Amino acid sequence: MTKEKLLAARNAIKRRKPTFKRVQSHQFAKFREVKWRRPKGKGNKIRRLRRGKPIRPEVGFKSPKSIRGFSKSGFKEVIVCNLNDLSKINSKEEIAILSSKLGGRKKLEFLKYSKENNIQIANFKDIDLAIKSLTKEKKEKVVKKSKISDKKEKTSDKKEVKEVSTENVEKESKSENLKENKLEKSKKEKTLEAKK
Question: pTM for the full model?
Fold first, then answer.
């Protein structure tokens, strides 16, 4: 079969494929968005294939083996982790999927490279828009970092001023304490002399 026929067959299979729900997904909110789990209970109705109960995955729902791993448009999907992987892609037969482990800087680099070499990327519908948004984020990050560094410098200056002022206060308090001690000693001496 040709690729177009295989894609059509896969689409027909996917159209009749139901969403497989986990057991008791209608009772608990935490199970609603969770992927399929095989029922293991002794008297479980889904496991025992009782009529009127939710359907479970069977062999017939799988797509044809020769078209598995292809995108909707008929390109083979390839996960990309570095520029070397991206450069190996054949743009006529394959489509790139940027790895989720990549950061913003690497994504930006890959998007620019793919734009130059006419490589399609499945993660991003509009490459130009993605490049703009990533560059904008990068600029905002730089501005934020500069603000934080300015703040740190200001606080360090304030700390230095505080340290100097506290040292001055300590010196003044010591000198005052010495004066008070001298006054007390002189008073004691006067009282002792007056008693004699």
Answer: 0.60
